[in-house]
Amino acid sequence: MVRVTFMPEGRTVEFEYGTMPYDHHGKPMSFLDVAENYGIFLDHACGGSCACTTCHIWIKEGAKGISEADDDELDRLDMAADLQLNSRLGCQAVITGPGSYVVEIPKWNRNYVQEGKPLAAAEK
């Protein structure tokens, strides 16, 4: 089983590894793909093509079960605000096996109002 918790919302989703349908947002089994499949808002202005940094996340737990960042992602991350050692792009960080994962969407990267999300969700 795969268990992903998105912070600070604290929303956790679980599914059997290899069973989640690809929703065509970022790479298959990326955190963006998981978020889109489960209705969790993770901004992605470029559509998940590694052309921006709006899906910038911090990996809090489970880094060993995630794909290594390739050169394209590393180059793009150099432009991200508040870059940390655990920074990844949600569209590129792929879950490679069963396990528990915790990711944080930085507060400054949550763009609910612009994307038409309800204000109540933005205030959480």
From TrEMBL:
It comes from the Bacteria. SUPFAM superfamilies: 2Fe-2S ferredoxin-like (SSF54292). InterPro entries: 2Fe-2S_ferredoxin-like_sf (IPR036010), 2Fe-2S_ferredoxin-type (IPR001041), Adrenodoxin-like (IPR001055), Adrenodoxin_Fe-S_BS (IPR018298), Beta-grasp_dom_sf (IPR012675). One of its GO terms (biological process) is P450-containing electron transport chain. The keyword Lyase does not apply. One of its GO terms (molecular function) is metal ion binding. Pfam families: Fer2 (PF00111). Residues 2-109 form the 2Fe-2S ferredoxin-type domain. Gene3D superfamilies: 3.10.20.30. The keyword Cell division does not apply. Keywords: 2Fe-2S, Iron, Iron-sulfur, Metal-binding. Its cofactor is [2Fe-2S] cluster. Belongs to the adrenodoxin/putidaredoxin family. This is Ferredoxin, 2Fe-2S type, ISC system.
